[in-house]
Amino acid sequence: MSKIPIVKSTVKPEEKKEIILTPLEKFKLVYATKCKEASIQMYKPLLKTLDRDEENLEKTERIFIQDDKFGIKGLSCLLTALKEYPSINEFAFYQIGSGDEGIQLICNFIIENPRSNFSLEIFDNITIMGCRQLSRLFLTKGPHILQTIILDHNPIGDAGSLALAEGAKDYQNLRHLSLKYCGIGTVGGLALVTLLLANTSKCKIESLNLQGNEIGSRPLSMLGLALPQCNTLKEIGIADIGVSEDDQEALDCFCDGVAQNRSLEKINIDLNNIDTKTAPQISSDVFKRILDALMDNRTKAYLNPTEEEEEKEEEEDWEYEEEGDKEAEEGETKKEEALKATSQKKKLIDEHALSHSVSKKISQPKKQ
């Protein structure tokens, strides 16, 4: 019995095509999976925002969530999914119910997923425990950059301020710190002002807002002493800090510091009792000295521009010169036309005057 030859098939099995997902699709897939595992609903307003930005070909950089039912589980699922969506570097969480534990998750995310210029805005009952987590982030070496922290209306108190200041003094990436109405007193105020002391701090803060904290006159005096050596601070918020007309020495020290500073551009000293009827001269003098110093700073900034500003100014000058040359050419043409028109007009006037003079002489009767 003859063997039947086996013919190998030359038809190749259909190759599986690799499906490439966009960052948004990856985020949605991971987010849906994690929410299902945690038995919670996905946060639909966020998904709508991401879809809208995707349709408009815009990159989503900021996430804003205000929902007391979001909770620590929702935050955990979200942060896990955000590892797939690298464009987002701004977090704004208002009353989401995660508190200090949420801060710990966020700090871990920032350290493990370094991106440029992280911004953190949280109003969620943050206390000293959350501030310690931020301090841990400051002290952890790595490429992560947390540039902005806004913890307004959280009860961090003096203890929280001390924890923040301890970590931030050696952290060179922090640029903006806002702690409005956080229950901070004199001790916390002094600790935060030390961030501006160049000889003891590596921090390069550009804006510091302590509005609504009863820090009093001592931190204000220290601020005055720190300002002359601080060349990065552009904005300071010390409105409603419990300073009154009785704190003349502290106000004088602060004004002297502002006058010697070369970087400040904006100061908010409103809502302090220095403009009462009992001390109108103090008020007018303080505000005048501050305004004069700020105007002087702007003038010096203009006279000593940065390299980027100089390059921009050169480009603007070049464009201006080109426009100027064009306008000059047009101006010369218009000038020639105007001179020609004036010459013709003058010629007509002269001819008319001559004609009038001749006719007048002819019409005059001869003298007998």
TrEMBL record:
Gene3D superfamilies: Ribonuclease Inhibitor. One of its GO terms (biological process) is nucleocytoplasmic transport. GO terms for molecular function: GTPase activator activity; small GTPase binding. The keyword Endoplasmic reticulum does not apply. Residues 301-368 are annotated as: Disordered. InterPro entries: Leu-rich_rpt (IPR001611), LRR_dom_sf (IPR032675), RanGap (IPR027038). Keywords: GTPase activation, Leucine-rich repeat, Repeat. It comes from Streblomastix strix. Residues 306-330 have a biased composition (Acidic residues). This is Uncharacterized protein. It holds the Pfam family LRR_6. GO terms for cellular component: cytosol; nucleus; perinuclear region of cytoplasm. Signal peptide: none annotated. The keyword Repeat applies.
